[in-house]
Specification:
The structure holds 2 protein chains of 2 kinds. By secondary structure, chain A is α+β, with helices and mostly antiparallel strands. Chain A is built from 2 helices and 5 strands; from the N terminus they run H-E-E-E-E-E-H. Chain A has helices spanning 5-29, 98-130, and strands at 34-35, 45-51, 62-69, 75-78, 90-93. Chain A is elongated, with a radius of gyration of 22 Å. Chain B is mainly alpha-helical. Chain B has one domain. Chain B has helices at residues 20-24, 27-53, 60-92. The longest helix of chain B is centred in the last third of the chain and has 33 residues, at 60-92. Classes of the chains: A alpha+beta, B mainly alpha. Chain A binds chain B through residues 3-4, 7-8, 10-11, 14-15, 18, 116, 119, 123, 126-127, 130, 133-134, and chain B through 37, 58-59, 61-62, 64-65, 68-69, 72-73, 75-76, 79, 82-83.
Chain lengths: 135, 96
């Protein structure tokens, strides 16, 4: 537990929320991206987060391990006039659900705000501690 | 009755040196270590400010958190100094 450890943990939480927002932004931007069926379609980005261990020197917090692609069946779209369509008239759309992304966006936004508030409160707390016995 | 012989006057020897390091090893060394930590957090904030200015840093909050930490560390140092000076002055005011 380092000095001002709450600030470090909250800062790592902010980074996670920021990376998550980036991933959501990427997904929303690619909601209409289509590829030809012989290519790998755009898959929604998912942030893989793990907890940082907490000990004598480590302050805990969260860490982004990787950005993974959402698995699942590809989103087949029938559009024979599309230049990328195969001989059967299909293209592959992105497996992005706009409803899910919007919900996640709100959660990520709130998560960022919560961590910011944590920093604010921790700073105030440390500052009040420095006022003890001051005349 | 035994009369002890007068012992020779011992030559004046140099006073034993005061072990400054030993005397000061308590709070002072801890304080110096603390100061080094404060300096490290200030350096870290400086480094991040530079990275933010030239676009290497992608997270604004990383710098803000580091700057807040450095600020708090300096305030803590000042608080400890104030307490130490206060204690010293209190002792200096003592009537002997």
């Amino acid at each position: 537990m380092a000095l001002f450890g709450a600030l470090d943990a909250a800062s790592s939480g902010l980074t996670v929320s920021r990376v998550w927002l980036d991933a959501i932004s990427d997904n929303v931007a690619n909601v209409n991206t289509v590829r030809s069926p012989d290519q790998e379609p755009f898959r929604a980005r998912m942030v893989v987060v793990s907890a940082v261990s907490r000990g004598a020197t480590e302050t805990g917090g969260a860490h982004v391990d990787a950005i993974a692609n959402r698995p699942g069946d590809p989103n087949w779209i029938y559009d024979p006039t599309h230049p990328l369509a195969d001989e059967r008239g299909y293209v592959l759309g992105a497996n992005v659900d706009l409803g899910v992304e919007m919900t996640n966006m709100i959660i990520a936004n709130r998560s960022y705000q919560a961590n910011l508030r944590m920093i604010e409160v921790a700073t105030d707390t440390y500052r009040s501690a420095l006022q003890i016995g001051r005349r | 009755m035994v009369i002890p012989s007068v012992s020779a006057i011992r030559p004046v020897t140099a006073p034993t040196t005061i072990d400054k390091a030993g005397a000061a090893s308590g709070s002072t060394n801890t304080f110096v270590k603390g100061l080094e930590n404060v300096q490290a957090s200030l350096d870290n904030a400086d480094k991040l400010a530079g990275q933010l200015a030239n676009g290497q840093l992608t997270d604004v909050h990383t710098y803000m958190a580091a700057a807040t930490k450095a600020e708090l560390a300096v305030q803590m140092t000042v608080a400890i100094r104030d307490k130490a000076v206060e204690a010293y002055q209190e002792i200096m005011r003592m009537q002997v």
